[in-house]
Amino acid sequence: MTEHKPFEIVVVSGGTSDPSSTRLLADRVAGRAEALATQRGRNVHVTVIDLRELATEITTALVSQLNGPKMNKAIAALGTADGIIAATPVYKAGPSGLFTSFFHVLDNDLLIAKPVVLAATAGTARHALVIDDQMRSLFAFLRTMTVPTSLFAASEDWSDNDLAKRIDRAARELVLLMESGFAEKVREESWGNYQHQFGSAGGAETSIDLNTDLMRIATGGALPKR
């Protein structure tokens, strides 16, 4: 019988209060995914990234492109993740700035094809479309594989059994995508078909053609005469 390594699930929580409803929602998804994976014979290891603990380092990375030790630890965890649960509170009809800033400073190649559950919390159901209207576009740019089910919880949803059903559905989708090994297969078979920035993938991506007309212009060179 083949022994599989545990699934690595990383929770990214943008909640700033303690206790945090955003963290609570993310933990419920992680717990359900762990239970479902266990039923299917797989162990799960969960790592939590609380963005409120990284706020200063996220700001530094935004203005200087320099990562502190907590940021480097978070990046390393995401790099080895088999699945991600990304949860944010909604402020002023959008994901929190802390949440979006964290993902803005990540290497564009870090999350390619990784399965992601998107979750958000707010005080009113009027913000329910924030996930599909704003968050999905960010994670599409990062080239992740977001699960079909979005998880949104307003104040009145916590006592509603429908939230538990949606959590179960999203967690199951995450487990199935992790089981498929899709992200690893994409990286093995199709990495070169993606557009990369020079020095991305932790500095390892150096195969970009620097001898194109566009790159010559960017580096101050002259175009060849035609």
TrEMBL record:
GO molecular function, one term: oxidoreductase activity
Alphabetized UniProt keyword annotations: Flavoprotein, FMN, Oxidoreductase
Family matches, as Gene3D superfamilies: 3.40.50.360
Pfam family, one: FMN_red
Residue intervals of the NADPH-dependent FMN reductase-like domain: 8-158
Protein name: Oxidoreductase
Species name: Hoyosella rhizosphaerae
Species classification: Bacteria, Bacillati, Actinomycetota, Actinomycetes, Mycobacteriales
